[in-house]
TrEMBL record:
This is Pentapeptide repeat-containing protein. The lineage of its organism: Bacteria, Pseudomonadati, Bacteroidota, Sphingobacteriia, Sphingobacteriales. SUPFAM superfamilies: Pentapeptide repeat-like (SSF141571). It holds the Pfam family Pentapeptide. It comes from the Bacteria. InterPro entries: 5peptide_repeat, Pentapeptide-BTB/POZ_domain. It comes from Mucilaginibacter ginkgonis.
Length: 146
């Protein structure tokens, strides 16, 4: 397969019915990309600003999303004033997925099927279910089973 190298240039690429497998983009500006009906298995995005990213109609089985948000304290790029803009998941099937070591302060779950969902070893301070504090629900449960 031919390799095309573009260095220190501004170019617009239009690829249709093309195989670009194995392509690499390093230190590149890719704003306003539109990817439609593409296979991107094993795609890896590292150190990227994905603000206003929209993913629709995607199969993401096996995806591993980690270290998302502002850099942690101690990281050279840490900014104590950084405020993460909200991320929205809508009409998604996340069956059998896991979430761990995530800060979900002020996180809202609405109109979701939580059948067999588990919350384990989490700080539930201020968390509510349908307006009722979970700490109150757990206290009532503990009193009822005594």
């Amino acid at each position: 397969m031919e390799t095309i190298e573009i260095k220190k240039q501004s170019k617009r690429i239009f690829a249709q019915e093309a195989n670009l497998s194995g392509s690499r983009f390093h230190n590149a500006m890719l704003n306003d990309w539109d990817l439609n009906d593409v296979a991107m298995c094993n795609l890896k995005i590292v150190n990227a600003n994905l603000s206003d990213l929209e993913i629709e109609g995607a199969q993401m089985g096996g995806a591993y999303i980690h270290n998302v948000g502002g850099p942690p304290e101690g990281h050279p790029a840490y900014d104590p004033n950084f405020k993460q803009r909200p991320v929205k998941f809508e009409d998604c099937n996340l069956n059998n997925s896991t979430m761990s070591d995530c800060y979900l302060g002020s996180f809202t779950i609405t109109n979701c099927n939580l059948t067999n969902a588990k919350i384990e070893d989490c700080n539930l301070a201020g968390m509510t279910i349908n307006g009722i504090l979970v700490s109150d629900l757990l206290a009532a449960y503990r009193n009822a089973v005594k």
